[in-house]
Structures are given as structure tokens and as C-alpha cells.
Write a structure and sequence with these properties.
- This protein is mainly β.
- It has a domain of about 50 residues.
- The protein is built from 1 helix and 4 strands.
């Protein structure tokens, strides 16, 4: 269950879906578990309105789930 913003620096509490953005991420199961029964797990993460404007949730094999800044758009050459 989603309780608060996935950004650890933010203290926003989840109340409604419309107040931010939910990320659904598929994660490989722990190799020590029974991988035949459950090869992947689905996890839900929420970023509040303020955080989702400048951040996103990504999955990295080595580090797991991370909240990172959105890439800045490249400026068009004049």
C-alpha cells in the first residue's frame, strides 16, 4: 500500500490518486526465492504533485528503486 511520497526528502502523505503520479514497476524476484512461482513482483510508488514535476522513479538492478531528477530538455539551437 502506498503511504507517502517515494521521495525520501518529502513528507507528503498519500490521500488521493489525483494528487500526484503513481508509478508501477516490475522488479525481478529475489534469486533465493522460488523464482518458478513468482519470477517478478509488481511494486507501486507514488510521487506527490510537487515531486512528480521534477522527479521520476526508476529501477536499477544493483541499487533497486531510485527517485531521480527528470532529464532537462535540450535547448533548440537558434
Amino acid at each position: 500500500m502506498i503511504e507517502k511520497c517515494a521521495n525520501s526528502a518529502c513528507c507528503a502523505i498519500f490521500r488521493r490518486l489525483r494528487d500526484g503520479r503513481v508509478f508501477i514497476r516490475e522488479i525481478e524476484a529475489d534469486p533465493t526465492s522460488d523464482a518458478k512461482r513468482q519470477p517478478r513482483q509488481i511494486h507501486y510508488y507514488w510521487l506527490c504533485n510537487s515531486c512528480c514535476r521534477r522527479m521520476t522513479v526508476i529501477v536499477e538492478k544493483e541499487k533497486g528503486i531510485r527517485v531521480v531528477p527528470l532529464p532537462t530538455p535540450a535547448r533548440a539551437a537558434s
